[in-house]
Amino acid sequence: MSHPSIDIAPQAIPRRLAPRPNGLWLLLGLIVFMALMPLVASPYALLLMLPFIGYGIALLGFNLLFGITGLLSFGHALFLAVGAYAAAALTSKFGILSFELLLMAAAGASGLVALAIGALCVRYTKIFFGMLTLAFGMLFHSFLFKFYGITGGDQGMRVLRPLLLGMEWRGGKTAFLTGPFYYYALLLFALLGLAMWRVTQSPFGLHLRAIRENAGKAAYVGVEVFRMRLTAFVISAVYGGIGGTILAVTTGLADPELAYWTHSGNLVFMAVLGGSGTFAGPAIGALVFVVLQDFVMSITQYWRFVMGGVLVFLVVFMPHGLSGTIEALVNRRHGGR
Amino acid sequence: MQPARAADTAPLFETINVTKAFGAFKALNNVSFHVRDGEFISIVGPNGAGKTTLVNVVTGLLRPTVGQVRFMGRDIAGIGPVELARLGMSRAFQLVNIFPALTVRETLAVAVASRLRRVGNPFRSLKRDDALQADAERIAEVLGLRARLETVASTLSQGEKKLLDIASAFALNPTVILLDEPTSGVSTGDKHAIMGVLVSAARAAGVRAIVQVEHDMDLVERYSHRIVALQEGSVLADMPPDAFFTNPSLIRAVIGTRPQTPRKTS
Questions:
Q1: pLDDT tens digits, one per residue of A57-108
Q2: How far is B30 from chain A (nearest CA, A)?
């Protein structure tokens, strides 16, 4: 039974002896870089970073479900919409402007919706899970679209400028978004990134990965598969809701397109683009997606065609996404494989 | 591990008149057998005799159509794998059943984390949980996987994968361990090594009984205290190896389809 370990020797080295830049540092590095951006970047560039922060947070959650637990949702935009509409309803219908309360409401509402939907969805896996989540997403989209009296129908609902830490900003809209709101959102991104890192590095996160790898076996070593999947679903929805709130404040509007299935498709695109196998990958995918879409839209009206081409290229040539490809290149340089 | 005298103790677990029907087909027909403290039981029988169905019923995956499955005095019919693991019965599978992308350390930590109930708080650190890590290392040590702790499971040799599968069953600190062909798909040389490691590990880990389904008669003869032979869903024999291997008609009934002499299916 004692095999010469020549062929697998590199992996037998304890990880502590061979430190590698981990995903958390990559994400925090990116956030620090973004914190310095207002010193040099134009307001336009900063305004572009806000959707990235929103999507980045949503993608951290999305990847807990997709990359870690192995459940691919095609209806995840539903939770972004729940967050956005929670912010819209509170600010424009109830006059509640505290951003902290908006965040709590968004997190609570999307978490509750996820608990109800997830209790059904996570009993299924693979395509069945995907289709069920897609169906719930479309159901919610129809609700937003048709119940004009409550949701404003295709007009959507306005999201008023919130108070940050109870303070009102008297300047213009762009100054608010690229100033205090930008830093607030960035700090939130960092905190939620840190929290998600802890989750992925916990015994709970390990159980999720075990479920992804082999759910049948996991059950036999005491993993509560249903409960773990449902918890992951709820956590990912909470991140989605918070991301959606940031998007809605940025645009000042919550509209039904947020819940439309193509929006869920974009989330999947971002995860695949960045690489769902790494911690920071999906968030980086969100950044590249937002910047790329903005760039392509500015030069051609056929931007969907270009984005589609990028997706085809990715799946064929970079199945592990940007971060996976970079990781492979770094490993090759360090003599590993 | 030495078997207790039959009269000394109540069985650790037993099936009482278990019948499992799939439609009109009875995969198990009125099967009763028991396992006492310290016993190593081998379940043998030709393909289709109902061995795997029996293991599935005993491990709560399938609910018997009729009859009881009792483990430490409790009816466990159909309770499901998670609850079963909690009660102290764990199982390793016929086919290699691992978490391909997890390392050996992580694989063992999955089981240890469920046993030590470490998953309630999703912010708890896995790396800094010394008790959990030490326990995973202890199990790796016992099963000879210490040098492979940081190796990704999918890159292990076939024999090591089997050991890892068995090790994760041990990581639950089980009272009884059920092994569905622990050495299938492993070279003959490795078979004895794996069984040797397994039995000594069981002794070290305080496992009170082992039940295995096994085709390899050498292994069955060498390690079992008792052999339960199944044929067409019924118990054909339940006796010590000495008696079993001196009965030519029994051996013929069981060895008919040994894996060494595969018959072509028509």
A1: 999 999 999 999 999 999 999 999 999 999 999 999 898 889 999 999 999 9
A2: 26
Residue A207 and residue B109: Cβ atoms within 8 Å?
A: no
The reply to whether B157 falls in a domain is yes
Parent domain of B115: 13-255
Given a contact cutoff of 8 angstroms between Cβ atoms, the answer to whether B40 and B224 are in contact is: yes
What's the structural domain count of chain A? 1
ipTM of the complex: 0.82
Give the CATH number, domain containing residue B133. Answer: 3.40.50.300
CA A171 and chain centroid, separation = 30
- Which of A201, A209, A235 lies at the smallest CB-CB distance from B125? A201
Give A18→chain B minimum CA distance, Å: 12
Out of A215-229, A282-296, A320-334, least confident range: A320-334
Nearest CA in chain B to A15: B150
Q: Which helix (H) or strand (E) holds A20?
A: none
Q: Is residue B172 part of a domain?
A: yes
pLDDT in tens, B155-178: 998 888 888 988 888 888 888 888
**Does residue A203 form part of some domain?**
yes
- Calculate how close chain B gets to A204, using CA atoms only, in Å: 5
Q: What is the total count of domains within chain B? A: 1
Strand order in the sheet with B209-213: B89-92, B176-180, B209-213, B40-44, B226-231, B234-239
Asked whether residue A120 is assigned to any structural domain, the reply reads yes
SS3 A61: helix
Tell me what the pLDDT averaged over chain A comes to. 87
Distance of CA A27 to the CA centre of its chain: 13
CB contact under 8 A, B123 and A235: no
* Domain containing residue A137: 44-258
Do B97 and A205 count as a contact with CB atoms less than 8 A apart?
no
pTM value is 0.86
Q: Residues 88-107, chain A: which have Cβ within 8 Å of B?
A: none
